[in-house]
Design a protein that fits this description.
By secondary structure, this protein is α+β, with helices and mostly antiparallel strands. It has 14 helices and 16 strands. This is Glutamine amidotransferase type-2 domain-containing protein.
Length: about 525
């Protein structure tokens, strides 16, 4: 009798991060991340040629010493503060040169200068025929910042330069900026995980060091595999599906005029802030990038985007509920299933949405290596080396700050966030709530303006149904809140109905059912 059963298979993306908690960069972290990525190759798809994957890659701290060595070998001058861009360019040399020229022009507008262009060494022989057919030219650009610029100043101006660049290149489907940052860099593509360091010899160079390394093995569920859609993206890697993506994108577009920051006075030039043609994960990355560029810290940005289930949580204190209530008026949740790992070069974090359907387990070993991934066993360590292990539960956020070597749990982050401003006082002064009828004094109860006969006529005239009266309006009147109901709707679509329907019935919300609902929570 075999212990194997087909129901044990898990056909969703694999993701994770490995970090040295004290911020000490090493090539070991990179090498271990690649090994862990290869261990999760069963979580990705494979094309018919047997060599082309759905996409895999690494997101790591910018290896400063490595690029300083590259600059020295090419006799390029690097300033004290510099950035590196990883670009996918067209195989058409004319289009590629045009993209490079536009980038140079936009960087000059930001008083940034280019130290040099580097054609990234690659070995295309390890690719499958399908991946090789769409292989772009891959270049790195080394960019110098003026003296006196701070790290975040550089990130903001690079963000604006990149957005203007992307808006001008509309006829080149191969063009993509994988990363453009002084904090992080991305290596990714359509290859099998085991072939990633063979395709990018940089990753096998012992001079390439990092203290944080995110990795991702993609299983494409809502888009066809493409080089730009391989993960990680510029800040994060995502396992799952954002089921509210159409609404999130439309709300981002509708609220675009509201986004402003004194740190980015020209932020509106970057609109639209969220793509509507890429994957759901890339759109989430776009929004996170915009929030961080505008000055929001990682803690609040992630709690704003992917909040826990706070509305009916009896164990959550009122101050914290007020924080989430306040945030809910600024942005709708990007609901999953979602498991996310991210880094800005200093922090390494993991967030899980309120449903918790994308498990994320972590282990800390004696040498203070934090390993967090979709599953355990992605690299070999003995049981006596483990000093702590656990999981990121539904709605939780785990953050490692490599600057002080400390791991922050959800309750610590929430306690910090709720004390930053008097959210409860703000909500009490500036919001209106419905009061249930039984909580009002009898003299405050209003008298009906219509006779029962006239009320019935109006209800028929405006299309009220018995179900709406009993299960929606009555609940609002009695409990002062909207009724809880299922996400499904089996009534005929208004346009196909034989009955007169209200104008509002012609507008319907898109909803994607959670995939793999059989998946356990732990």
């Amino acid at each position: 009798m075999s212990l194997y059963h087909p129901s044990f298979e898990r056909d969703n993306c694999g993701f994770g991060l490995i970090a040295q908690m004290d911020g000490e960069a090493s090539h070991r972290i990179v090498r271990t991340a690649i090994h862990g990525l290869d261990r999760m190759k069963h979580r990705g798809g494979i094309a018919s040629d047997g060599r082309t994957g759905d996409g895999c890659g690494l997101l790591m701290q910018l290896p400063v010493q490595f690029f300083e060595a590259i600059a020295a070998e090419n006799d390029w001058h690097l300033s004290r503060k510099f950035a590196v861009g990883m670009l996918f360019l067209s195989q058409d040399n004319e289009l590629a040169e045009q993209a490079k020229h536009i980038l140079e022009r936009e960087l000059e507008r930001e008083t940034l200068s280019i130290a040099g262009w580097r054609k990234v060494p690659i070995n295309a022989d390890v690719l499958g025929e399908i991946g090789k057919a769409s292989l772009p030219q891959i270049y790195q650009v080394l960019i110098n910042a003026p003296i006196g610029w701070r790290e975040k100043d550089l990130e903001r101006r690079l963000y604006m330069a990149r957005r203007r660049l992307e808006q001008q290149i509309i006829d080149d489907n191969d063009f993509y900026v994988a990363s453009l940052s002084g904090q992080v860099i991305v290596y990714k593509g359509l290859m099998m995980p085991v072939d990633l360091p063979a395709f990018y010899p940089d990753l096998a160079d012992i001079r390439l060091k990092s203290s944080i390394c995110l990795f991702h093995q993609r299983f494409s569920t809502n888009t066809s595999p493409k080089w730009p859609l391989a993960q990680p993206f510029r800040y994060l890697a995502h396992n799952g599906e954002i089921n509210t993506i159409t609404g999130n994108r439309q709300w981002a577009r509708a609220r675009a005029y509201k986004f402003n920051s004194p740190l980015l006075p020209d932020l509106q030039q970057a609109a639209p802030f969220v793509n509507e043609t890429g994957s759901d994960s890339s759109s989430l990355d776009n929004m996170l990038e915009m929030l961080l560029s505008g000055g929001m810290d990682l803690y609040r940005a992630m709690r704003l985007l992917i909040p826990p289930a706070w509305q009916s949580n009896p164990e959550m204190d009122d101050e914290l509920k007020a924080f989430y209530d306040f945030n809910s008026m600024h942005m709708e949740p990007w609901d999953g299933p979602a498991g996310i790992v991210m880094t800005n070069g200093r922090h390494a974090a993991c967030a899980v949405d309120r449903n918790g359907l994308r498990p994320s387990r972590y282990v800390i070993t004696k040498d203070r290596i934090l390993t967090l991934a979709s599953e355990v066993g992605i690299w070999d360590y003995s049981a006596d080396e483990v000093i702590e292990k656990g999981r990121v539960g539904p709605g939780e956020l785990l953050v490692l700050d490599t600057l002080n070597g400390r791991l922050y749990q959800s309750f610590e982050i929430d306690n910090d966030l709720k004390r930053r401003h008097p959210y409860k006082e703000w909500m009490a002064k500036n919001s209106q709530t419905l009061t249930p009828a039984e909580d009002l004094a009898s003299e405050q109860h209003g008298a009906g303006e219509f006779t029962p006969e006239l009320l019935l006529q109006y209800q028929k005239l405006f299309g009220y149904t018995r179900e709406e009266l009993e299960h929606v309006i009555w609940v609002i009147a009695k409990q002062g809140e909207e009724a809880t109901g299922s996400m499904g709707d089996d009534t005929p679509m208004a346009v196909l109905s034989k009955k007169s329907r209200s104008l509002y019935d012609y507008f319907r919300q898109k909803f994607a059912q959670v995939t793999n609902p059989h998946r356990p929570l732990t």
